[in-house]
Specification:
It is a single chain. This protein is α/β, with parallel strands linked by helices and 288 residues long. It folds into two domains: 140 residues, Rhodanese-like domain (Oxidized Rhodanese, domain 1, 3-Layer(aba) Sandwich), CATH 3.40.250; 117 residues, Oxidized Rhodanese, domain 1 (3-Layer(aba) Sandwich). The strands form four sheets. Strands 1-6-5-2-4 form a five-stranded parallel sheet. Helix 8 links the parallel strand 9 and strand 10. The protein is globular, with a radius of gyration of 18 Å. 45% of the residues are buried.
Length: 288
């Protein structure tokens, strides 16, 4: 059995399984730790200690476009720019990639997973339990920063699954579903610590991304399938779009749904911060 036979991970991977695969050296691990309050904190933590051999992905620099290049606080990056990021990590179309963070996958491991899946890359997964789970098992860490690679990865995103606010508005008008991954108090508009307008897109339903987790790890696929099945209300996943504040934690839902055997939902790339860029767009407040 080859290493690629053992590492066909497309959603989640257990820390012990990843540790065993690292011996073969055929997995690219990416540390995606990030703090919205201190954008440099994740990279600082990475330089002190990370999963042995891991590279670093900065949410603003590597997993988003420049400010003003698209909607919202974390614009979806251009395909060429993201291809350059993957090339610098030495990733090829056949590489097994594993991402992790210290926020249950929400900042920003699931974002990297989503970017790669939207680019058609199948062999990408998130480390279940993240940095904390790796440390708790006493698995190998180091502070070495690998040198840049040069793979020449060419990216082409599935634009049909990536909705800007205008397309999101048409999606809702067609009677399709939107699930917002923000905390209930932000969804309702009772609290808004980040964006200038509080509330949610009219017609959206709320499921905080944290509902996908149980004690820091993803719930079993059957349980996620049951919970999302209730939320989808009998409609296929392809009728739904995930959103959040800026298109980052929404990716957590897409990962959880794929792990539950419910792939195909889209992403509102600008999400709430993109929606409110146009003051003419309607805003709802209160619970779903």
């Amino acid at each position: 059995m080859t290493s690629s036979d053992r590492t066909g991970w497309t959603t989640l991977v257990d820390p012990d399984a990843l540790a065993a695969a690292l011996v073969d050296g055929e997995v690219v691990v990416v540390d995606a730790r990030f703090s919205l309050a201190d954008p440099g904190a994740g990279e600082d933590a990475y330089r002190m200690s990370h999963v042995a051999g891991a590279r670093y992905a900065h949410l603003d620099r590597d997993l988003s476009g420049p400010p003003g290049s698209g909607e919202g606080r974390h614009p979806w990056p251009a395909a060429e720019a993201f291809g350059q990021v993957l090339s610098a990590w030495g990733v090829t179309p056949g590489t097994q990639v594993v991402a992790y963070d210290d926020a249950g996958g929400a900042l920003a491991a699931a974002r990297l997973w989503c970017l790669m899946r939207m680019a058609g890359h199948q062999r990408v997964a998130v480390l279940d339990g993240g940095w904390a789970g790796w440390q708790q098992r006493g698995l190998p860490v180091d502070s070495h920063v690998p040198p840049p690679g040069r793979s020449g990865y060419r990216v082409q995103f599935d634009d049909a699954a990536l909705l800007d606010s205008a397309r999101l508005q048409r999606h809702l008008a067609a009677g399709r579903g939107v699930v917002d991954a923000r905390a209930p108090e932000r969804f309702s508009g009772d609290v808004e610590p980040i964006d200038r307008v509080a509330g949610h897109v009219p017609g959206a339903v709320n499921r905080p991304f944290s509902d996908n987790l149980d004690d820091g790890r993803f719930k079993p696929p059957a349980r996620l399938a049951d919970e999302f099945g209730t939320l989808l209300a009998g409609r296929p996943a392809s009728d739904w779009v995930a959103m959040c504040g800026s298109g980052v934690t929404a990716c957590h839902h897409l990962l959880a749904m794929a792990h539950a055997g419910l792939p195909g939902a889209g992403l509102a790339t600008g999400s709430w911060s993109g929606w409110i860029e146009d003051p003419a767009r309607p805003v709802a407040r209160g619970p779903a």
